[in-house]
Amino acid sequence: MLRIGINGRSIFRQLTGVQHYAREITRALCALDAEDVSFTVFSGREGRDPGEDLPLRVSRVPAGGPARGLIWEQTILRRMVSRAGMDVLFSPANVAPLYPPVSSVVTVHDLSFLLFPEYFSRSFGAYYRSVMPRIVAQAAAVITDSESSRSDLIAHMNVPPEKVTSIPLGVSPGFRKKFGKAELEAIRGRLGLPRKFFLSVSSLEPRKNLARLVHAYGLLPAATRDEFRLVLVGAGNRIFADPALSLELERLPAGSVVTPGYIREEDLAAVYRLSTALVFPSLYEGFGLPVLEAMSASTPVITSNRSSLPEVAGPAAALIDPENAEEIAAAMELIAQDSGTRNLLIERGKKRAAAFTWEQTAEKTLEVLRTSAAGNRL
């Protein structure tokens, strides 16, 4: 029996892209029909009431919070894994124990902390630049979300190519849900969404390029802006903490940009479906899951021609230069006014998204875990 431990530090936190991956890959791995494998998910005290059907082993100490979580990961998790007699430990959220008691496999989602250090606080960037080379060096194998991230890891951290495997993410089936008109309108009203709108789903990190997106929206003809609003999901009131973004917002009429903040996943599929298009002009992504989520929800996508995004979107999105606001605006205007282009992107997007499933992601991940555990036994 192959005993696989999963670092569950991130799966009980509010979902960002990394936490979403950690939760979904954990669910999918534990759901695999593999008779010779057992999984144990190790978590802090917050896992006692998870609402998840997972094979949990919970510590008495919480693992939430940046500092407390790091201490838990580097000390308590190591002891839990060792005592449980695991063969391999899988850490799905970038960081892992520096001195793992068993063979370690870690997913490194991107190298933004290294390639764009100006986007992070000095302490966060310094910590990641210090520990990530050590985590990667001691790992038996490293997983990335895309070939783009795999190439970054090999080029910038001198990782042997044979040690890094690219495994694409999946799309949760809930994003394909069919909604009735009344249900959509109820969600629209509850969330305060406008009748027609372009959608952004992202955090407020500078690499997400929200200031330029708002600037591009301001370049649209007045008639188009009167008809279509811009909705920034995930940013909330924190948008005013970004001076560049705040400046762009001040140039627009009040009410042009709507910021509903964090939206739970069960509503997000409806928000995608209500929108005219997802505009995702990120400067750098390890994968860019909102692109596939929108496609799965029958929403056309405008996204960047940078990093992993062309790899993920394929021929199913309108690709733009994320540093060219005029180009972003032109793509928005095209989708707003040309139903033929919109319908073409919707059909291509649904086919593209259908090729990405969490079950496939889990099966490929299990192959890496098997190989890593076998190497540890030699």
Molecular structure report:
The chain has 378 residues and is an alpha/beta fold. It folds into two domains: 2-170 and 358-377, Glycogen Phosphorylase B (Rossmann fold, 3-Layer(aba) Sandwich), CATH 3.40.50; 173-354, Rossmann fold, CATH 3.40.50. The protein has 15 helices and 13 strands. The chain has helices at 17-31, 66-84, 112-115, 122-138, 147-157, 181-191, 210-218, 222-227, 243-250, 265-274, 289-296, 309-313, 325-337, 339-354, 358-377; strands at residues 2-7, 37-43, 56-58, 88-91, 103-107, 141-144, 164-166, 197-201, 229-233, 257-261, 277-280, 301-304, 318-320. The strands form two sheets. A seven-stranded parallel sheet has the order 3-2-1-4-5-6-7, with helices on both faces. A six-stranded parallel sheet has the order 10-9-8-11-12-13, with helices on both faces. Helix 11 crosses helix 14 (339-354). The radius of gyration is 21 Å and the shape is globular.
